[in-house]
Structure formats: C-alpha cells, structure tokens
User: What shape does this take?
Amino acid sequence: MSVEAAKAAAAKAAAAIQAQLGMPLGYADVDAAPADPALYPGMPEGWGAGMNEPQRQTVYAQHTRQARRLYIGGIPPGAINSDVQRFLNDLMLNSGAAINPAAGPPVVDVKIQHEKGFGFAEFTNCDDAQSALMFDGVVYGDTGRKIRVNRPRDYDPSKNPVVIRDGLQIEGPKGIGLLGEKQANAPPPWPEDLAIPAPPPLVSEWPKLPKRTPDGPNKLYVGGFDPLHTEGQIRQVLQAIGELKSFCVMPDARGRNTGHVFCEFADPRLTVVAEEALTGAWCFRQPIVCKRAMPDAAPAKEGDAATYAIPDIALPLLEEPNEKLWAYNVVCREHCEPDDVVADVVEVVRRECAAVSGWDVESVIAHVAPEHGDKRISLEFEEGGGGASGVGGTALEAAVRCSSKMNGRTFEGRTMWFRYVPQSDEEWQRRKER
Assistant: This one.
C-alpha cells in the first residue's frame, strides 16, 4: 500500500468513527481535554477531546435528537403546536415526571402534521423523553380524546445514551401487529432440506407436464401475466420457485393466452413459498398475483372434474394498480363511538401498511373516508417514502407491496380487503403519458 493510499484509508476510517459518535469533522483543538462523562451520559470514554464546551453541546444535541423525540398521535383537530407543547409541559411538571424541573420546561418543541392528526415532541434531554412514555393513553385536556405517546418508527435504542448509561436491555424492533392478528401471513421459513434444481436451459428439454391441475389444497392460481407472454415465459417464472407438478394456462374463446394460470408444485411445501415470493412481483409493468385457488379443499379423487375459478382473494389484486388504496372490513360500527377508537384503528392499520410495504410511515396518509357509509379506510402512498427504509422504489410499488401483503389478513376476527381506488379516464391518460 502506498503512503497516499494509507492516508486515504486512515481518513476514511476516522470519518466513519466521527460519524458514529456524532462528531463533525474539523475540530482540531488538541489542548482540550475530554468531556466530563457526567455531563454527557452515554458517550464513549475520551469523547469531546479537541472541542470546546459549546461545540460539545451542539454535537451532543445532534447525536441525541432521535432519543429525545417522541411520537404524539390522536391529536384533536384544531390543536396547535404551542397548545400541545404547553399541555405536555404541564403534564410533566405537575406529575413530577420531569427529571429536573428547575431546569425549565422539559418539552422544547412540538411539530404537528394537522392533516394526519399526529406530531412529534422534542424534549430537553433523553431522561425526560423516557419518562414521558408513561403518558401513553392520557386524555388530552377536556376533549375526552386519548393521545398516544410512543417512540418514533426510526428510533434506535442502541443509540440512546440513557440505554447505554443505565445498561437497559435492548430489544429488537417490534412490528406493529394488527389487533387480533396472528400473523398468519408471515413469510414461511425456507425448508432446510429443500433444494431447487435449476431447470434445463433449453425449453425443448423441459419435461412435459399435465395441462390439467386437479383440485386440492395446493392448487395455485397465478394471474397478472400479459396475454403476450408465452407459456414458456410464464413457466420460466414459476420454475424459479421450484419443480412443477402440473401447469395449465387458461385460454380465451379463441384459444389465446389470457394471463391466468393454474399450477401445482411437486413439493407441497412450496405452495406457501410461492404465494409469498410471487405475489406483488412485477412482470412487464404489471404485478403478479399468486394465491391458493381452494385452500380448504380436500385432495381430488381420480376422475373428479377440475374447477378453474379465480379465487376471491385475488380479484382486488388484479385491478390496475395505483398509489391509492381502500381498506374494507376494518372499521366497524362498534368503533364509531368514541371517535378516538376509530383514530387508533386507522393509525394501527397505517403503521402496519407502512411496515409491510417498507415505506416511511410519515409518507403514508390514512383516514376514514366520510363520504362512504361503509367506513372504508383511504390510504395514499406519497413519493420519496422509501429513502429512510432503504427499500427505495416508487409510491406505486409501495402500494402494490401493501395490497399484496395485507389483502386477506384478519383484523379482530374479520378478513380485510384491500383494492386500488378506481381512477378516472383523465387520470389514467396522464399516467400513461408519464
């Protein structure tokens, strides 16, 4: 390694360490001693050397900002930033929850997103933020509405100085599950003894398969293919999952491919794997849908007629996708009184939709559509929400992932249905022109 290369490597490593500690580049006062650990809890030994006190305070405030912020949900309409800040400060000071009341108000800033009904509160120090978590579910003033006080979605306890200082147990991230949800649609574990041999490279060498798929619990419906796709191209997609036992492409009245397929894999364990892997995958500008055609059916007997009907759970996923969704069978009549119950339900669904789609929760807008008597939930994915999660992609792709994962799941014993909001002819024309 040359001298220049060694210097570059050392500079890169130093920059990485400084970034981890929240220490900006450019501080070079070699005479300054390390900071007093009592003043800056959670920072590593020797931190603060080369910085004066104002610089340390600035860097420490930036480093701890995530741990000093809390999510405030269920904020009543009409409440403004100063009202919520005053309410939280009074709550902290009057209850004794503030760690150091003599230092002044513990809440220094509140930012509300009025159209979404939630906001974020920033505290003076991490201890006050930790203490304020006890107020989750407290009634806001005389409104009768309960507010939610939680950690933001991007909170990382491993970077919280209070956790490091007190040696608290750091738990892994917990997904926000739906009320009454058993997570039945969680991705299945890949069988350890399951090996998938690569199909022969030439289509002419592929084994012949029965073009009749009998009824049974492992019969799969796969839709969303373009009618221009050949049987070989469709089969190539399916064989990426594993060896097929049967394969049937449904034709139209003229014998042309319709893009609807029924199949069964040789290994029945691949049924749930295929559902998870293929549903929501894109193929020629259209997401694929893969669902069991009749999950409760008994294995067919020899001579039984086979049925080829698109399962109800797949129908909403076959519609033309867009960034807006409707969620049905979530809010029921029992939720309507009081209103804060509806708000809690909408918030839980919004966060779960963000989690399964890999989208920033702040970029998912959700509310109950008041113009509809069935109390459906309206969801919209905004562009740019995949940056924080690292998933990337477009809002359209996030909506497809959400619909694919959420459709058919249960909520308080009811099956939820998600469908894309129908678009007008003008909107579709604008979409095609983009």
Remarks:
- Residues 203-311 form a domain with the Alpha-Beta Plaits fold (CATH 3.30.70.330).
- The chain has four domains: 3-62, 66-166, 203-311, 324-433.
- DSSP finds ten helices and 14 strands in the chain.
